[in-house]
Write a structure and sequence with these properties.
Blueprint lengths: L1 H20 L5 H17 L3 H8 L6 H18 L5 H17 L9 H18 L7 H9 L3 H20 L5 H13 L1 H24 L5 H25 L4 H4 L1 H13 L6 H12 L5 H4 L8 H16 L4 H24 L12 H12 L4 H6 L1 H9 L7 H17 L13 H8 L3 H7 L15 H23 L7 H13 L5 H14 L10 H12 L13 H20 L1 H4 L3 H13 L6 H15 L5 H19 L2 H8 L1 H8 L15 H20 L6 H6 L3 E4 L5 E3 L4 H5 L2 H13 L3 H4 L14 H8 L17 H27 L1 H4 L4 H6 L11 H12 L12 H4 L5 H32 L11 H27 L35 H7 L2 H13 L6 H20 L5 H18 L3 H18 L5 H7 L6 H12 L8 H11 L8 H4 L21 H7 L10
Antiparallel strand pairs: 1-2
Helix pairs in contact: 1-2, 1-3, 3-4, 4-6, 5-6, 6-8, 7-8, 8-11, 10-11, 11-14, 13-14, 13-16, 14-17, 16-17, 17-20, 18-21, 24-26, 25-26, 26-28, 27-28, 28-31, 30-31, 31-35, 32-35, 33-34, 33-38, 35-41, 38-41, 41-44, 44-47, 46-47, 46-49, 47-50, 49-50, 50-52, 51-52
Length: 1170
């Protein structure tokens, strides 16, 4: 009767599996079949006989696979409930399947082999070694039956190592038992693997080398080869972690076998993988010394001959992959030599070191750019090595290496081209020219005269890369008298004399001038020539007097020249100072022509002059110079017309041309000059403020008249020479910010004409940056900088807005007390920078937050933005009135944004939208909300939480890189305290409430980075500040619940989970004695064990009980709240696998008390007996 039931069920299951796998089945039938199969696996009591019946080799492959899946399911989920006899029956049946229930090794499907090995490994994980001590013996017996069984044994051993050691997919005690038993039997296992490999390789080679073998013999050889490949794969799974003694046993027999197999085409890749893992091993140097056998004659011969053979037959993918592995082996071998060869070591330079270098150089000169670059790190290690760097063989190879490098630096081998042998290899390694270009870490685009593929350009680019890398290192590492000054100056002279009208090559020339500029410190007479070259490039045009828009390539050259001038004035101001008058006159001449330079170019030249003027070290002289320099700016900015334009939105829209309806790109823009003048003023204000500074040396600052007073703590109070000029321009700047903010009001946007209604939208480049999309490296650069009038207007508004806020951000650190004592400053800022916030989009709100918490550019040590630099005496009058309402507003705004995102994810798939591109727009909006959230939380953190070594009195720098400061620290000290500013803000109840609500609410917002930072840096210091007062019970409940919600949202991320658990633990320990309500929250956690909670509370509330260690208490607490810790989506609906611990194999004996030990042996007298 039972067999009839099994037969009937098997028939139904075969039908169900056939329906599921049949492409012509309807979805409904397929779902019904799937449901039947899953319910059968979960509930049917005769799974084992059915599974064994379906797994018989008479069935088709998909049915056999399902039958084996049933058996695997039984082992994974029912094993703990099976009787001993049932387990033995299933184990024996599976071993019988391996012995007699599989097809020939060459015919059997890989997925059948895989699931069979999985079943055995799952049983091993549950029973070995305690209840299945003969497992290895049984596997050995199976392997003697033939190649099919041997291969399956290899799969079992490999998967066992992966599960236990690599992926560690079982409980700690079981993993420890199995790994220790594996280690104890490793000599036996390794011997088995090596013997199996050798036996099958020998059989395979005998057949292959016999020219007149017949088909059956050939099939036998293929079977032997298949076992050899499986043995190599299994060895690779063990070599990485077993003791080195097994790898180097019997005079490195394993390494010898692997070297021999490098010349066996079907086995060479697996052998190279094993060799690479072995040679890459870390650990004790003493254990690694035997690896030097690979520098011996035999090993080196096999490695090199294999490389020559693989490379000799043209480009074949399989051979090329093998060649890459061999290159990695040689790299690892070189790194081992560098590690083992030392002053105190008995390892000597190998006799074959020269042969090794020649072979490694062959990879460096190989046509494959990938192989060439792979060798560079190891060459660096060899050249830097204390002993090897002096070896005659290595010294002799250096000229060859440098000649090869000259070739390698030339960017040849684009996948789309056929002009180099490298191209064919690049098509294997790179998907596109962009990928190839990125691989070389540079990305100039094409231009109208010369492209990145042009031979002349690639030679120049290679030289540029070489000079930039070498010259800098030379000046850093060589003694002054060792520097080849004459050669460097001669090369500089040649570069200065080189003339070209090609923008790409000219850009390389400028980089070379910058790289060689340190030589001018030895020959200052070359300075005028250098500046002449740079200034001629500032005004570079391909076609003189052309009315056509400048191309990107031309724009890039001019900017490059400007940045080179700034860099020289910043890094070598004393060298340039004697030429100041000459430079000033030249710049004034260029500025006199309003159309000759762009506004950014004009400002860059002004910044260069300001940098040199810092070397005057005389307040009055520098102030007079800055007044003269800023006079043109002041005359434009303070004019009556400009004041009207900046204060009135309608006048502003008309002035910049945003209300013009006829905008033919071919016609000259009548408002272009207006926008240029406005941009020039803002650029100049920012540039002068950014570059002006007082001397860093206090004595020089006092002598120059920069110190005006001292603080009560004795710190000097400085004055900035630019203060007077900047402050008189401040009112109109605030008016411009107010007007710009007002533009976002719907009624103002309606006043703009098409196509400028979208002028305040994000630029495409901004969208790409936010979404993390790569910029095209090979874009055509002979196109105009701005393709449309709308794009030009968008860039104008975006740059103007950001620069205005950069100025406000720099004002405090730059002008210090002169800025913070401006009358009614808080009111002025609130009525300009913070108006109309409701209509300002997220992507424009971020610059406003930057003025409070970040500075444009990379700030120097100790420099803070506007709010953080503010002296404590101005907190109440300036900072609190701004930040209080702002934090409240930002919390409301972010809460609404996250609510929309959460609702969108809940409703996902229910409604189809008909927007033009809704998915990318939603992604953009969500990413913006995440970025804004991080900005807000960073702002609160830097305002409220102290950082070690904070210094609010450092001078502003004269230089500023254009990289944005990133707040990357996520793990502050456990003793984080509130700053004075934080304490000041927390004194105001409304601000305190806003800060706490924002911080704790944000824990459940779906942004991991923000959650991590807020949890570790902000929440506890804020909460600790209010603990001494009386908190409402509802507030305590809400705070604790917010942390648990955060755990529910972010529990899947280990970092967040650990931080949130710690925070919840801190809150519960601090507040549970005072608030019973917090216990009620705990009781609502799913699956919480009330008796464990009672025990935890008892120890917490009873101080007389001895407290256990903090870590143990935290672990207990984590187990209590486990029910609310979120899991990854992939684990939420996964059935739990439970593997029971077996009796421990390695119990530590308890130490016996001394008295017992003495009594056993007959007392004290026995100690003294001989």
């Amino acid at each position: 009767m039972a067999m009839d039931r099994v037969n009937a069920l098997c028939e139904q299951l075969v039908k169900a599996v056939t329906i599921m796998m049949d492409p012509s089945s309807t979805q409904r039938y397929r779902l019904e079949a799937l449901k039947f199969c899953e319910e059968f696996k979960e509930k049917c009591p005769v799974c084992v006989p059915c599974g064994l019946r379906l797994a018989e080799k008479t069935q088709i492959a998909i049915v056999r696979h399902f039958g084996l899946q049933i058996l695997e399911h039984v082992v994974k989920f029912r094993w703990n409930n099976m009787s001993r006899l049932e387990k033995v029956y299933l184990k024996n049946s599976v071993m019988e399947l391996i012995a007699n229930g599989t097809l020939n090794i060459l015919e059997e499907e890989n997925h059948i082999k895989d699931v069979l090995s999985r079943i055995v490994v799952e049983m091993i994980k549950r029973e070995w070694p305690q209840h299945w001590p003969d497992m290895l013996v049984e596997l050995d017996t199976l392997s003697k039956q033939g190649e099919t069984q041997t291969e399956l044994v290899m799969f079992i051993l490999l998967r066992l190592a992966e599960d236990v050691v690599t992926f560690q997919t079982l409980p700690p005690q079981r993993r420890r038992d199995i790994q220790q038993t594996l280690t104890q039997n490793m000599e036996r296992i390794f011997s088995f693997l090596l013997n199996t490999l050798q036996e099958n390789v020998n059989k395979y080679q005998q057949v292959v080398r016999d020219t007149d073998y017949n088909p059956p013999t050939f099939r036998q050889a293929q079977a032997n080869c298949r076992v050899g490949v499986a043995a190599l794969n299994t060895l690779a799974g063990y070599i990485d972690w077993v003791p080195m003694s097994h790898i180097t046993a019997e005079n490195c027999k394993l390494l010898e076998v692997l070297c021999l197999l490098l010349n066996e085409q079907e086995l060479q890749l697996g052998a190279a993988e094993c060799l690479l893992i072995a040679v890459s091993r870390k650990g004790k140097l003493e254990d690694r010394k035997p690896l030097m056998v690979l520098f011996g004659d035999v090993a080196m011969h096999y490695i090199l001959s294999a490389a020559q053979t693989a490379d000799g037959g043209g480009l074949v993918e399989k051979h090329y992959v093998f060649l890459k592995r061999l290159c990695q082996v040689l790299r690892a071998l070189g790194n081992q030599l560098c590690a083992l060869l030392g002053v105190d070591s008995d390892v000597e330079i190998p006799a074959n070191f020269g042969k090794y270098l020649e072979s490694f150089l062959a990879f460096t000169t190989h046509p494959s750019q990938f192989l060439r670059s792979s060798t560079q790190m190891t060459w660096g290690a060899l050249f830097r090595h204390e002993i090897l760097s002096r070896d005659p063989l290595l010294l002799a190879i250096i000229p060859k290496y440098l000649r090869a490098s000259m070739t390698n630096l030339v960017k040849m081998g684009f996948p789309s081209k056929t002009d180099s042998p490298s191209c064919e290899y690049s098509r294997f390694d790179f998907d596109s020219d962009e990928d190839f270009n990125a691989f070389f870490n540079s990305g100039p685009g094409e231009s109208s005269l010369c492209s990145i593929f042009s031979p002349s350009f690639v030679q120049w680019e290679a030289m540029t890369f070489f000079l930039e890398s070498v010259i800098n290192q030379m000046f850093r590492t060589l003694d002054k008298e060792e520097i080849p000054v004459n050669d460097g100056v001669e090369l500089l002279q040649m570069v200065l004399n080189f003339d070209t009208k090609d923008p790409l090559i000219l850009s390389c020339v400028l980089t070379n001038v910058s790289a060689l500029f340190p030589f001018v410190t030895y020959r200052p007479e070359f300075l005028p020539q250098v500046f002449s070259k740079l200034f001629s490039s500032v005004t570079f045009e391909i076609v003189e007097e052309s009315k056509a828009p400048r191309t990107r390539a031309v724009r890039n050259v001019r900017r490059h020249a400007c940045s080179s001038i700034i860099k020289m004035c910043r890094d070598y101001p004393q060298l340039v100072l004697p030429s100041f008058d000459m430079l000033y006159n030249h710049v004034k001449q260029l500025l006199s022509n309003e159309l000759l330079l762009t506004q950014m170019e004009k400002c860059a030249l002004m910044e260069a002059l300001v940098l040199i003027s810092n070397q005057f070290k005389n307040y009055e002289r520098q102030k007079v110079f800055l007044e003269e320099l800023m006079a043109p700016v002041a005359s434009i900015w303070l004019s009556e017309n400009m004041h009207r334009v900046l204060s009135d939105v309608d006048a502003f829209i008309a002035y910049v041309g945003a209300d013009r309806k006829n905008c033919d790109p071919g016609l000259e823009d009548p408002c272009g000059l207006n926008r240029a003048r406005m941009s020039f003023c803002v650029y100049s204000i920012l540039g002068v403020m950014k570059r002006t500074c007082w001397p860093t040396d206090l004595e020089e600052a006092k002598a120059g008249g920069f110190v005006v007073a001292y603080t009560p703590t004795g710190n000097p109070v400085f004055r900035n020479p630019c203060t007077e000029q900047i402050l008189k321009l401040l009112d109109n700047l605030l008016a411009l910010i107010r007007t710009h903010n007002t533009l976002y009001a719907p009624e103002m946007l309606a006043k703009m004409a098409e196509p400028f209604t979208r002028a305040l939208d994000m630029l495409e480049v901004e969208k790409s940056a936010i979404l993390g999309l790569p910029q095209p490296l090979l874009e055509l650069n002979d196109s105009p900088v701005y393709k449309t009038v709308l794009e030009r207007m968008q860039r104008f508004f975006c740059t103007l807005y950001e620069n205005c806020f950069h100025i406000l951000g720099k004002a405090g650190p730059s002008m210090q007390q002169d800025f913070y004592t401006v009358e009614h400053l808080a009111t002025q800022l609130l009525s300009s920078a913070f108006v109309n916030l409701n209509n300002i989009p997220d992507y424009r709100l971020r610059p406003m937050l930057h003025i409070l918490s970040k500075l444009p550019g990379k700030p120097p040590k100790g420099q803070k933005p506007l709010v953080l630099f503010c002296p404590p005496e101005h907190y109440e009058a300036l900072v609190s009135p701004i930040l209080g309402p702002l934090f409240t507003y930002l919390h409301v705004r972010l809460s609404q944004k996250w609510q929309v995102i959460n609702q969108r994810s809940l409703l996902c798939g229910e409604d189809e939208t008909t927007d033009e591109n809704p998915e990318s727009q939603e992604m953009l909006e969500e990413q913006l909300v995440r970025m804004l959230t991080r900005e807000v939380m960073d702002l609160i953190t830097v305002c409220c939480v102290s950082k070690k070594g904070a210094d609010h009195t450092a001078a502003p720098p004269a230089d500023g890189d254009d990289e944005e400061m990133m707040a990357t620290e996520v793990a502050p000290s456990a003793m984080a305290e509130l700053t004075d500013l934080g304490k000041c803000l927390m004194k105001h109840e409304d601000v305190c409430t806003a800060l706490l609500i924002t911080a704790f609410n944000s824990l459940a917002w779906k942004d991991t980075l923000s959650c991590q930072r807020t949890t570790t840096q902000l929440c506890w210091p804020l909460l600790k500040q209010v603990l001494s007062g009386t908190l409402l019970a509802d507030a305590v409940t809400w705070l604790f619940t917010s942390v648990l919600k955060g755990l529910q949202t972010h529990g899947q991320h280990d970092g967040c989970m650990a931080s949130l658990v710690h925070l919840a633990f801190q809150i519960y320990e601090a507040l549970r004695p005072r608030y019973l309500e917090i216990r009620a929250v705990m009781e609502q956690i799913p699956e919480i064990q009330k008796d464990c909670l009672d025990q935890f509370d008892c120890k917490l509330l009873n101080p007389s009980l001895q407290k256990v260690a903090d870590k143990r208490r935290k672990d207990q607490f984590k187990r209590l709240i486990a029910g609310c810790i979120g899991k990854p989506l992939g684990e939420q609906f996964r059935k739990e696998v439970h593997i029971k611990n077996l009796p421990s194999l390695f119990k530590k004996p308890k130490p016996m008390p001394e008295t017992d030990a003495l009594d056993e042996e007959g007392g004290l007298a026995t100690i003294f007996e001989p």
